[in-house]
Each structure stands twice: as C-alpha cells, then as structure tokens.
Amino acid sequence: MKNSIDTKEMQRRLDEMKKREDALHKPVKTDKEPQVYMRYTHLGLEFIVVFLGFLFLGKWLDEIAGTSPWLLLVCISAGFALGMYRIIKVANELSK
User: Fold this and answer.
1) Which residue range(s) make up the domain with 15?
2) pTM value?
3) What is the mean pLDDT of residues 17-38?
C-alpha cells in the first residue's frame, strides 16, 4: 500500500518536472522590432528641443545686437525648418 502511494507521488512530481522543463524549452517570444508607435516617439521631443534651442538663441542674439524681434523671428523660422527636416528624414529612414 505504501509503495503505491509513493509511486503516485513520484509520478505527480515527474509530471510536474516535465511541465517545468517544457516551459523552459518553450521559445520565448521576443519582439526585437519595437512597436510601431514607439519607433516615432522621440521625434516630437527632438523637434521641441531644436525649436526651443533656436528660440532661445534668437532671443539671446536680439538682446546682444538690439535688433528685437528680427533675429528671434529668423531663429524661430530656422529652428522650425530644421526640426521639420529632421522629422521627415528620420521618418523616412524608419519607414524603410
């Protein structure tokens, strides 16, 4: 009687170990390619940083040269253009 209980217990443990082993050998699904929406999240931040950098540069240059608001407007336009250029360039590279 004791022997049959031990056999059942051993069989249960063996089945449990097989399940664990199967789980270990099961291929892990890894997504090396980030989700589509995550690929483009840095573009907005990059645009804002470039735009604000040129904005502050224009403001600073206007204070030094006393040409307010002309250098500010030129730098804002340049910052916007450069930011848009970077967005288009990176988006084209990522879509390939």
Assistant:
1) 2-95
2) 0.57
3) 73
